[in-house]
């Protein structure tokens, strides 16, 4: 399972309260390994009031909150039952899983907010030897076959029983030798 961004519908005007409540629930229910970030998309705007210019933060999508999470039954339940949440956007009915945002959509929203998605510096190269830290291949030495920057994954070849076996791992599941 990989983490993705989902859109949560809230009561209008309750976006920040939902964000706070959800962050508290994540901590109290120990879901930090499934629910990572909660964002209320805002942008800077200039308003003119009483002849004065004022810079304010305006909600980009009133009534919506973005949640970066790994979708499981437990994480869905925690978000769905947070006070102020009316449901996920993109779910087609009771019990069905919502549709995550496309990576391009998330990038556009974060860019609009001035929060570029940070990507880890990668210094892996094709043909390099690495040590796998992922079960059940812990401590196996592998050769990098492909580097996928967008998905933050590597395709490595592990030598098992005299054969090269391909394995897909995240950047933090291997270490350089």
TrEMBL record:
The keyword Secreted does not apply. GO terms for biological process: DNA-templated transcription elongation; DNA-templated transcription termination; regulation of DNA-templated transcription elongation; transcription antitermination. It comes from Planifilum fulgidum. Participates in transcription elongation, termination and antitermination. GO terms for cellular component: cytosol. HAMAP family: NusG. This is Transcription termination/antitermination protein NusG. Keywords: Transcription, Transcription antitermination, Transcription regulation, Transcription termination. InterPro entries: NGN, NGN-like_dom, NGN_dom_sf, NusG-like, Rib_uL2_dom2, Transcrpt_antiterm_NusG, Transcrpt_antiterm_NusG_myco, Translation_prot_SH3-like_sf. Belongs to the NusG family. Residues 2-113 form the NusG-like N-terminal domain. The gene is nusG. SMART domains: NGN. SUPFAM superfamilies: N-utilization substance G protein NusG, N-terminal domain, Translation proteins SH3-like domain. The keyword 4Fe-4S does not apply.
